[in-house]
């Protein structure tokens, strides 16, 4: 039995371990960032300047693809010995928590990068850019939870790339719809009171996804 | 006289009432709806049936994860297949109805979109199931996805209608069917229709699960 402070220490260790091994494989990380930067550049070459609603649509499409691409490998690099070591180190809940927190961090960095690229190339149609930024990060909590669980599922099926997309797109759809609606509010600079209900729904959806993920993950744990 | 379980008798007898009365019974004369109002007996029960069947499928997945008995996996599989069939039929009957009353096969109605996403989820579930060769692994991993998909389906059904107004009766200021269309004569057919098609769905799933069990048995025996 692990105590709460013990689990917390393990969590921190696992996240640091993840960060360090990611840092050692910079080409993989660079590939992910390049993926979204290239996608933004392609949309710049096709659209030049994007009008507001299209900006939001293109941004979320790019994020959807690059996040499934990036998080699809959450469990990909842990194979054989390393997986056994990580699993012997922690309980399934702590292990999942470390993966999800690391992925939230990763998604936020991709988000910053994509947004910056889009601001530079296709313009800034936002009335309230700051609100768009933090609302997106609130969404990435749920997105990270859903994609991490599905990445674990598709890893078991040994059919990574296609299966990851097919399994995750319909599941993250409710999250995406709320995020697009909230981005539109930030785009038009609506009074924050108008977005309160949607924000509450987004938070509730985050909680639902995370709790389902934590309940179900132990069944994917070990064979 | 065939020996059938009571619920099959109820399904059979109510269908004997619903099918002739659905096509030939007296219905109110309504402008625009005209004779297409009869679709109420076939379109709406498909959705009720789908929700019941998918819930049953999720339930069996849960029981499988608890007890690890393969028969529960067969049940989850069967219920999801028939649920998918009901969803496709509900979508088709709905699209035909929409073309002749709202003027388009697809008008981005939130309920149309939600059902399309639901179908994508359960088609993905079929793809996932088919990517395993080992029955135990397939049962365990697909049970996890089934439960996760079902828990994402529930918020979808509540969130999506709040984002956009629906053309369906009872939404977005449209009067519900209860208020003016569903008079006593129609109720007498509609309620048995819901019961009949739902029970028929469970019957179909029962046959499908038994077929699966036989094919499994033959495979184990002769290979």
Write the layout of secondary structure elements.
The complex is a heterodimer of chains A (223) and B (223).
Chain A: H1 4-24, H2 26-47, H3 52-71, H4 81-89, H5 92-122, H6 129-156, H7 160-188, H8 192-216
Chain B: H1 6-24, H2 40-67, H3 70-101, H4 110-130, H5 135-163, H6 177-180, H7 184-222
Helix pairs in contact in B: 1-7, 2-3, 2-5, 2-7, 3-4, 3-5, 3-7, 4-5
Low-confidence stretches of chain B: none
Determine the fraction of residues in helical runs of chain B and give it as a percent range.
over 70%
Tell me the Rg of chain B in angstroms.
Answer: 19 Å
| Most extensive interface, chain pair and sizes | A-B, 33 and 27 residues
Overall structural domain count of chain A = 1
Multimerization status: heterodimer
| Global morphology of chain A | globular
The secondary-structure element order of chain A is HHHHHHHH
Q: How many beta-strand runs of chain A?
A: 0
Structural class of chain B: mainly alpha
Low-confidence stretches of chain A: none
Question: What is the radius of gyration of chain A?
Answer: 18 Å
Q: What is the mean pLDDT of chain A?
A: 88
Question: Would you give an account of this structure?
Answer:
The complex is a heterodimer of chains A (about 220) and B (about 220). By secondary structure, chain A is an all-alpha fold. Chain A is built from 8 helices and no strands. Chain A has helices at about 5-25, 25-45, 50-70, 80-90, 90-120, 130-155, 160-190, 190-215. The model of chain A has no long low-confidence stretch (mean pLDDT about 90). In chain B, about 75% of the residues lie in helices and about 0% in strands. Chain B is built from 7 helices and no strands. Chain B has helices at about 5-25, 40-65, 70-100, 110-130, 135-165, 175-180, 185-220. Chain B is globular and about 60 Å long. Chain B starts with 5 loop residues before the first helix and ends with a helix. The interface between A and B is medium-sized, with 33 and 27 residues.
């Amino acid at each position: 039995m692990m105590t709460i402070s013990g689990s917390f220490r393990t969590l921190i260790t696992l996240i640091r371990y993840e960060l360090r091994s990611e840092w050692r494989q910079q080409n993989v990380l660079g590939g992910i960032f390049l993926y979204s930067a290239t996608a933004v550049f392609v949309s710049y070459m096709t659209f030049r300047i994007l009008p507001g609603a299209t900006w939001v649509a293109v941004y979320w499409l790019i994020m959807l693809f690059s996040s499934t691409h990036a998080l699809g490998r959450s469990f990909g690099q842990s194979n054989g010995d390393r997986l056994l070591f990580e699993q012997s180190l922690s309980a399934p809940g702590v292990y999942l928590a470390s993966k999800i927190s690391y992925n939230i961090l990763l998604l936020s960095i991709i988000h910053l990068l994509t947004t910056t690229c889009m601001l530079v190339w296709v313009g800034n149609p936002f009335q309230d850019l700051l609100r768009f930024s933090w609302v997106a990060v609130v969404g990435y909590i749920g997105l990270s939870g859903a994609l991490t669980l599905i990445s674990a599922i598709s890893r078991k099926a040994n059919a990574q790339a296609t299966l990851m997309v097919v399994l995750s797109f319909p599941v993250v759809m409710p999250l995406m719809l709320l995020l697009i609606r909230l981005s539109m509010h930030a785009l038009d600079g609506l009074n924050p009171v108008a977005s309160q209900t949607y924000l509450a729904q987004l938070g509730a959806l985050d909680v639902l996804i995370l709790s389902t993920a934590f309940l179900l993950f132990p069944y994917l744990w070990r064979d | 006289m065939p020996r059938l379980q009571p619920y099959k008798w109820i399904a059979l007898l109510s269908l004997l009432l619903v099918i002739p009365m659905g096509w030939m019974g007296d219905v109110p004369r309504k402008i625009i709806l005209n004779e297409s109002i009869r679709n109420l007996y076939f379109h709406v029960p498909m959705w009720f049936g789908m929700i019941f069947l998918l819930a049953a499928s999720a339930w069996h997945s849960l029981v499988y994860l608890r007890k690890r008995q393969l028969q529960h996996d067969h049940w989850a599989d069967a219920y999801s297949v028939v649920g998918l069939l009901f969803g496709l039929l509900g979508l088709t009957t709905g699209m035909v109805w929409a073309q002749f009353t709202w003027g388009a096969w697809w008008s981005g109605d939130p309920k149309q979109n939600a059902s399309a996403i639901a179908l994508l989820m359960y088609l993905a579930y079929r793809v996932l199931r088919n990517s395993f060769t080992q029955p135990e692994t397939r049962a365990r991993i697909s049970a996890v996805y089934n439960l996760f998909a079902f828990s994402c389906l529930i918020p979808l059904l509540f969130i999506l209608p709040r984002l956009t107004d629906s053309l369906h009766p009872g939404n977005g200021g449209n009067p519900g069917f209860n208020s003016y269309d569903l008079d006593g004569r129609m109720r007498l057919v509609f309620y048995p229709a819901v019961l009949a098609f739902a029970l028929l769905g469970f019957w179909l799933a029962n046959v499908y699960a038994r077929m699966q069990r036989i094919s499994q048995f033959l495979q184990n025996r002769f290979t």
